[in-house]
Sequence to fold (555 residues):
Amino acid sequence: MRDEERKTKKRTRMMDIPTGIALLHEPSLNKGTAFTEEERRSLGLEGLLPPFVSSLATQVIRVMENFRKKPTDLEKYIYMMSLQNRNETLFYRVLIDKIEEMMPIVYTPTVGQACQEYGHILRRARGIFISTKERGRVVDVLRNWPNKDVRIIVVTDGARILGLGDLGANGMGIPVGKLCLYTACAGIHPALCLPVTLDVGTDNEELLHDVLYIGVRQRRLHGEPYEDLVDEFITAVQEVYPRALIQFEDFATDNAIRLLNKYRHRASVFNDDIQGTGAVALAGLYSALRITGGKLRDQRILFVGAGEAGIGIGGMVSSALVADGLADEEARKRCWFVDSKGLVVKSRDDLAEHKVPLAHDHEYLRDLLSAVKSIRPTVLIGVSGQAKAFDRSVLEAMAACNQRPIIFAMSNPTSKAECTAEEAYTWTEGRAIFASGSPFGPVTLKESTYVPGQANNAYVFPGIGAGVIACEATFVTDEMLSVAAKVLASMVSEADLAQGRTYPPLTSIREVSAAIATAVAEVAYRQGMARKPKPADLPTFIRSQMYEPTYRRYA
Fold:
């Protein structure tokens, strides 16, 4: 054996890199056809790969060619998840470089269908599943994860996946997808990320009788057993991964609100459905008001949906108004809610506990159109999961009382959107300022083209997480969320606004995330919640920590 080969093999052993076929089966290390000839000799790969050495750029071309040949979005999702399981670096290179094309596939809306069919399309399990069978042993389960320095955990119990309801353990597609975006959008290294599903059962009859369902076949836990499992999980995370941020995702509304309130001052946690949605919607409102010339304090906002998303947005708007000088009661008066039974008013005796603070003194109105005509809102925000809730009569009513009605149809996936971009523009004669949760393409109407904004939480949660991780913040505070909204709104250009956009293009998402991360970390340092010393140049430090998917050299 030549001396150089001996040296290379020695360096390889020192790096504890597997060799041969085992290396090709390790997605975090695999380079596929990009292994150089020298690496192939030293790592026992000769003959296991075709002889031509590809560049990363060439591999991206191959991936995109095959991706675009897939006949359905679900097939594209399966292809990309298989790539992630095979070659992590290549997966993230494609995701970052083709973010506009990839985000609707790896996340909403396609991830919704993927969750519905998760047991049927499963190729390789990802993340940690903690079921009722592991009660009392959650610490041991978490220690089975191979990466020992986890900094961000996205956890769901599968109770309310997007607008699709209870999908049980199939909901794992959501934490997996969210963490893909943490890496792609904010540069958090994949090794720092851990997706978790708390499998507490499901009340979905179809899943309980599906032979391919991947979860425990029992009804959902409630009450004390449920609380005990969640508490054990939070405690276990603090023991095993003491520097990790925990993001709650797609819990049922009552549980989501209660768990956030229970743990937000005990651990580094936040709820993206409540707080992330609130921040991204507030940012969109700030941008829309730059178009209308109005002020936030002068708006009347009608929410269709009084669940965690509506509460989150309403809370963010109220906090922003209080910071602007309004009394708390006056701020609350700017936000009105319609649920499945009508306008949320004090005379109703059927309000859930979390809706009572949202109720106003007003006559009860059963339907949305009556509410629009009576309240005359300037802003209509859909977070109901009810497709077509903003029908022609509702949108025409909004246009009748506003020169520039602000219409946010934020429910996901696309099939649950309250209206489409085309409907919003057409039925308001092109005067609507429109944004949606799922992507819609440009709309041409009477020789004018409108580009809808996408009120996607991916604009804020990756940056918030990156900021918390960068300074190791002990808690996630309301001010961090508020500053994230302001930074996002500030990055919408005049050219974007001229097209009708209320959010910057997704191609700038890493720049947006870096700016939000910096602002969030600044808040943590100012509030005395950062465990790490402040770098001399915080923005440069945060950018230096952003993962860039390039191949490492092994020889």
Remarks:
- The longest helix spans residues 272-292.
- The longest strand covers residues 193-199.
- Residues 459-528 form one domain.
